[in-house]
Structures are given as C-alpha cells and as structure tokens.
Design brief:
The radius of gyration is 37 Å and the shape is elongated. It has a seven-stranded antiparallel sheet with strand order 13-8-7-6-5-15-14. It has a four-stranded antiparallel sheet with strand order 9-10-11-12, with no helix packed on it. Strands 1-2 form a two-stranded antiparallel ribbon. By secondary structure, it is an alpha+beta fold. The chain has two domains: 144 residues, no CATH class; 144 residues, Rieske Iron-sulfur Protein (3-layer Sandwich).
Length: 354
C-alpha cells in the first residue's frame, strides 16, 4: 500500500544559489555551472590567432563573391563540362553555385567562429517580466546592448569589423549580377526587324504564311485577315522562330473611306493595311479579326485594336498601337514592303523610344 509522503518531505536547499525545493518540487534548482574561461579569454596570442582566422574567412568570402561575378564573364552560357562525381553540368552554373556557396558559407562560419572564440560567453539568468517594459527595464536593455557590443570586440577589433563589412557589402553584388539572367541587353535588336532591309529601290515581297508564295493585291479580300512574312525567311532556318517573333505580319483590306487615320491610309495600298501581328502588351500573336468593326483582338489578354484608326488600343492592357508597315506593289503587282515598321514591334522596354 502506497502513501503520499510529499507533505512530509523536508525542504531542500541549494548550497550555491540558495534555491529551495518547495512542496511538490522533487529537485532543487541546480543553478548555472561555473563559468570556464576559454583559451582566447586568457591568452591574447590565441585571441589574435582567432581574429586572423575569422578575418581570413571574411576575406575568402569577398574573393568568392568576386569570383561569382567573374564567372559571368569567363564561362560561356552554353558550355557543358564533366565534373566527377556529379557528371555533365553547365560550367557557368557550377561556377556560380560554387562561388556563391563559398561566399555565404564563409560569412556564416566566420560569424560562428567569432562568437565562439572572441565574444563574451557568460550565461546570465533573466527573470520573466510582463510584455510592457517599464523605464528601468528599457534602460537595462539598452545598457546590456552597449555592454554586448563592447564585449563583442566589434569596435575594438578593426580587422574583424572591416573584413565583415567588406564581405557583407560584396555579397549583394551577386544578386545584381544575376539580373543578367533576364537576357542580353536588347541594344537595337528590338528596334529593327527583318523588314529593315527593305528600301524603295530594293523592296521585300510579302509571302503568305500558309501558301509560302508572294501575294498580289487582288489576293487580299475585303474583310479577311491574312498573315505574311518577309521573302527569304524560311521555316527550316535555324533562327526562324527568333525572326518570325518580330517579322510576323497581318494584312487586312478596308474600304478606303472607312479608314479614319490618314497616316495609316498613306502607309497602306488601296485599303490594304499591314500591321505587326505581335501584341504590344506581352507579345502574344494576334489572330482574331471582326470585319464589321475592323477590330483585332489579342486572345491572351483581350487587348483590342482598331485597325481602321491606326491600330490604336481601344480596350485591354496593351500600351500602344500596333506598328504599321509601309507597303505598295511592284511591277508585277505583288505586294512589297519599302521599309521597316514605323516603330519597334512588341511590348514596351526601357530603350523603346516611346
């Protein structure tokens, strides 16, 4: 038969801290173990050695960050190498991952080594307080912060401080360099298309995308929508998809009296208007046409263009009208272009004139 003897247990006292095990507490508070100084606490040479080790880690981090940036210049984007035991990998991706990993690891390892060898490691108990702090507690926290900052050696150990700041300042540059992955700078590549080679003296014929044959003016029926490409652009060409993304053309025939924009009328031929097929919102191909209203609709986000009024935007998120191509006919009556679009095709970009 068992008996509860907790009420008869004597109170236990802790010799070092005076903690008392009251009724219901089986053990006394053992308190904190006695602080044991580290070697760096009693040997200044060991402290200096630890300081150099931490600084070296921060310097390696800086060098790795510089290596990360240099990798973008040194390694081709399409180069594949064999690395044991990983296998075949992109040399650029491997170099970027390795250098960035070393840069971040050395910062973390340096901070941990600093904290374990040079910063104060005294453990101090703190009583719990209400969430709202009084003036005395706030003053105590500020004082503890100042004490911790002083004991960390951040202000006194200049080599540590400077190398840490240097490594932390260089690492964000890796993120800036990563913007290159958005693609090469457009320069003038987006400002010109395959129609750019056309001149009044050497025009380029308009080729039907379906039949792959040049078109005559009488082939364009009023109310229809026809797609065209420049003569010489073949579908089996290596860069066909790149070129057609800029050169794609759509032709409509509108009664001349229904064309509201004088400039569009002048760029066209007998009511035949040639507009870029690439939507000026995000570059989707426009493929829907309403012959009664002369509206062209982009199926992606419903941007709507009035082809009878300079292809201006009348609905949707597109930012500007569709560029128009100046066309005429040659001696055989085939439709030809005599120049490039009147403005860059496709969505807006930083270097775009407007």
């Amino acid at each position: 038969m068992s008996h509860d003897t907790s009420d008869n247990m004597p109170e236990a006292h802790d010799a070092s801290h005076g903690a008392v095990a009251t009724h219901g507490d089986p053990f006394a508070d053992p308190g904190l173990p006695a602080h044991e100084p580290r070697r760096t606490d009693i040997d200044e040479r060991a402290a200096k050695r630890a300081e150099r080790q931490v600084s070296l880690l921060f310097i390696v981090s800086m060098l790795a960050t510089i290596g990360f940036i240099a990798s973008y210049v040194v390694f081709p984007i399409d180069e594949i190498v064999y690395i044991f035991p990983i296998g075949h990998v992109s040399s650029l991706n491997f170099a970027l991952g390795l250098t960035l990993g070393v840069a971040l690891f050395c910062i973390g390892a340096g901070a941990v080594h600093w904290a374990r060898t040079l910063m104060s490691d005294h453990e101090l108990p703190a009583e719990r307080h209400p969430i709202e702090a009084d003036d005395e507690l706030r003053a105590d926290v500020i004082e503890q912060f100042k004490t911790g900052a002083a004991e960390s050696g951040f202000g006194r150990r200049k080599m540590l401080r400077n190398t840490l700041i240097g490594s932390m300042a260089l690492v964000p540059l890796s993120g800036v360099v990563l913007l290159r992955d958005l693609g090469p700078l457009p320069e003038q590549k987006l400002a010109h298309t395959g129609w750019d080679k056309a001149t009044p003296q050497n025009p380029i014929a308009l080729v039907n995308m379906n039949t792959n044959k040049p078109m005559k003016a009488e082939d364009i029926i009023q109310g229809s929508l026809t797609f065209a490409k420049p003569e010489g652009l073949e579908e089996d060409a290596e860069d066909f998809q790149v070129q057609i993304a800029k050169d794609a053309l759509m032709l409509v025939r509108i009664a001349p009296e229904d064309i509201k924009d004088n400039q569009s009328r002048e760029l066209g031929f007998e009511g035949i208007l040639a507009y870029s097929k690439i939507c000026t919102h995000v570059g989707c191909p426009i493929s829907l046409y309403e012959q009664q209203t002369h509206h062209a609709l982009c199926p992606c986000h419903q941007s709507t263009f009035d082809l009878a009024d300079g292809a201006r935007v009348i609905f949707g998120p597109a930012g500007h009208p569709l560029p128009q191509l100046k066309i005429t006919t040659d001696e055989q009556g085939y439709l030809v272009a005599t120049g490039d679009f009147d403005e860059p095709v496709g969505p807006s970009y930083w270097e775009r004139p407007r």
